[in-house]
Here is the input.
Amino acid sequence: MAIIVNEDTLLSDAVEKMKSEQSRLIFVIDDEKKLVGVISQGDILKLPKLSIPINACMEMNPVYLFEKDRNLALDILKKYQFSELPILSEQFKILEVLSIWDLA
Amino acid sequence: MSKKILVFTGSRGEWGYLRPILKKFGDTNHDVRLAITNMHVDPAFGMTESEIITDGFQPDYRIFMNVAGVSETAWARSLGLMGVQLPNVFDDFSPDIILLAGDRAETFMAAVSAFYSNIIIAHIQAGELSGHKDGMARHALGKLAHVHFASNKDAADRLIRLGEEKFRIHTTGAPQLDNLLDKNEISDIKDVCSQLRLSASDKFCLCIVHPSSDEKVSPAEIAKIIYKTLEKRDIYQVWILPNNDTGSAEIVDEITHLPKELVRVTRNLARNDYASLLVNCNFIIGNSSSGILEAPSVGVASINIGSRQTGRLRSKTVIDVPVASIESVDSAIDKVMSEKNFDSDKQYGEGDSSSKIVNVLDQLSIDDKLINKFLVE
Here is the structure.
């Protein structure tokens, strides 16, 4: 299951979710549910502490596809070697998170 | 004669000034130590210490100074905390000279600590004009500094008008330009673009908005206007998040929430990567000094918005938009996009400033004439 958290979430809380969901990516949304960032397990391992809001450390250029381009999903996942890819509405809201396992 | 020199930095911007000088110190017999503070050691601001380490330097002293909160009084308290801790470094290292750069508040606080600890203060980028608090911090620091490194004649002349003795003033150029004018110091644009999920052939502009206190349009609003004006054009916007001064939170908030279709955001960027973006961008827009000092020297057009850079010596390739609006910014963008190539304009230095600065410090005699400051009236 994809992990989606609000940008004010403490990184340590997001990491707990990551452990229970066994997912390597956390997608970050704002109060309007728009995608604003992403953070990977690899990024988190490089951080000196977890007691900061996730929006202070997230990658701010997330990879995504708009709904109309969803047929490109597998190519994009391969290109960036990610396991999950959010599909967005034109308003940047997450409609769905595709997993490479759904597509392979 | 070998000297003990403490180099001090609290932000990414000054690191750009100091880095080429630290490299040059490698060829001398001075005992040089590096003290870092503020954003370099604060996880909330990207911990730019990692950038310093990537550049091949190991900080000797780390001073954590930021108390919680983003108010003016929290910032004043943080500055006090810096002023309290720096003398411990002086006790440990006993420097002859502290090397400071720019106009930031923590740098001014470092000058206060050093002045009353009887340490010679050498100040890079002295005498220039900048936004009101920064500008006043720069000139107040100038009153305490024993050696001034001015980046151009305009700044050197101002130091004289402000009562500084001529023998203290050295016109050396701005050292942060040295790496922009050295091809070996510029990252491959393909690598930088790929980090930002762009391809090297994509057209992009650099967008940088810092806090600025005396604006008719707030900096966060300026950021929004830049985004909205560029949104309808076929060009990527590469945004670099501002320093952590009071007022930065609103700007960061604005930038973080921009739709990411044409927008890329970076929190901290190695200097070589920044140099690559600057050299390869179509233009730079916002209120960063990079648009005034650096862009013209590499032939890149800039749009300077608001009053933060008022009064600074500038090239004719800088288009000023005193009050931001969609219309005024749009017409400035039309202007820069219709120009082809600009000739580079080197009024802030020829790429040899760091050598000149190290040379002055090599030759410097620390004697009563240097130590005792007098105002020329």
